[in-house]
Write a structure and sequence with these properties.
Helix content of chain B: over 70%
Distance between the termini of chain A: 45 Å
Helix content of chain A: over 70%
CATH superfamily of the largest domain in chain A: RNA polymerase sigma factor, region 2, helix turn helix motif
Largest sheet of chain A: none
Radius of gyration of chain B: 49 Å
Order of helices and strands of chain A: HHHHHHHHH
Number of helices of chain B: 7
Strand order of the largest sheet of chain B: 1-2
Strand content of chain B: under 5%
Oligomer: heterodimer
Order of helices and strands of chain B: EEHHHHHHH
Chain lengths: 180, 221
Amino acid sequence: MGETTLSELDDIEALDRAYRARLLRFVAYSTGDVDLAETVVQDCLLKAYNGRESFRGECSVYTWLAHIAGNLVRDHQRTRRFQFWRRMQKTGPDLSELAGTLASGESSAETQMLARERAREVSAALETLSENQRRIFLMRFVDEMDLQEICQATGMRMSTVKTHLHRAVKAVRLRLGGRA
Amino acid sequence: MEDHREGNAVHLSDEQFAELLMGGSPAQVQAHLQECAKCRAEAERVGGAIWDFSEQSRLWAERRAAERVLRTAAQTPRAERESVLAWLVRPQSWAGAALAIALAVGIGMTIEWEHSRTAQQAATTAQADAAKAQAGLAAARVEATTAQAETKAPAGATTVQARAAVQSEAAVQSATLKADNALLSAIDGELRADESAPASLYGLAADTSGSGTKSAKRISN
């Protein structure tokens, strides 16, 4: 890792600016709980900063952060409290909040509406996945991490990662009207 | 790898589809996509939906993170807009806070300790003054009695007797004032000593052995 990485880890504000949004997206869709995601991301950044001496530079900073965030998510998901609230209420990211903020100014209102509808379908499909399938799907398709990085972030073997990913893709395809 | 059959047509298997969506595109799969409109349409639909999801979730997360920054900035006064997160992780911040607390506690304890010690010393001094004043009063009374006895002495000593009478009166007055001062100081000292000093709560005894630098306010002529 170069000097940029080291200075990134030495400056908590830079770390926050560079990775908060990306981590928030990953954790929010992993847990389906935005408030919990905010807490986990905060904890993750603090933990990474405090433990920066242990970062050996064998992977990217984001892969390392995703590993920490994944562990924190798993810790939270194990608690009874989290399971209770997950049953009681859904506080996941609401893509309808994005009405009017879609990136492309060229696309028509109809195109934007269709895009939002498709995104919602994928979001709904994610809820049917197991925790590992969802986490790996998000790492691959949302965070655009390669398989090797996913192995580093999850601590899983390549074959296990591929299996989870194939199952996740199949579930999403079915949800989107693909062949059974 | 299992082919996906539909009638006579053979379509991409789940594994091939997953590989395709994951970015892998073997020549065999690419060739099939060129020929099979159904697989091509499905690949575009699923790939497009995942891309839409990725893009919209990115926008959502960026907006959420930006809102957090704005919320923090709005809640924090301009002079203190430095991130709370940065403050929390800065070791010197914690060291500074600990030092400030230690100083505050230390100064408070020292003031109370000094206050208690001074009160004790004032009480001791006042008691000694009271004893001296009592002795002075007794001496003055003896002096006055003697002067009165001298007034019964032979004529011709009138001037001496008058002077003695004035002196004895002044001595009595001075002794009375001293006694009053001493009594007030003693009361004041007792009251101060009765106040519970926080230092004593921490097991620190007030030192009454030193010589006093302050004394109770005295009545002056």
